[in-house]
Amino acid sequence: MIGWEDWKKGFDAWEGSTAKLLEAWMRSPFVLGPSGAMLTAAMKAKTASDRAAATWWGSLGLPTKRDQERTLHALQRLESRLLDLEEQLADARAER
User: Where are the domains of the chain?
Assistant: First the structure.
């Protein structure tokens, strides 16, 4: 029967040689080129999908993600200005 230590040594040897081989293979231009092309195609498909979704939501008269982001930014600016005005009012009251 194989003990834990013997099994662990065998596994470590297998893992070390496999890792070296896999790392060399992953750095190969035969892997990197097609992988890069697939990633580029996936990103283009995502962009096209996002545009189609925004157009569809817009055609229904609903705000798109960009519209919502602009509205949120404007609300944050208004909140910041409101806080500044509240501080100025508190300072003016304290001076009295």
Answer: 1-55, 63-96
Measure the CA–CA gap between 18 and 10, rounded to whole angstroms.
12
**How long, in residues, is the chain?**
96
pTM: 0.55
CB 64 within 8 A of CB 57: yes
C-alpha to C-alpha distance for 45 and 49, rounded to whole angstroms: 6
**What are the 10-residue block averages of pLDDT along the chain, 96 residues in total?**
86 94 91 94 97 92 92 98 96 89
Three-state secondary structure of 23-77: HHHHCCHHHHHHHHHHHHHHHHHHHHHHHHHHHHHHHCCCCCHHHHHHHHHHHHH
Cβ burial 13-24 (10 Å sphere, 16+ → b, else e): eeeeeeeeeeee
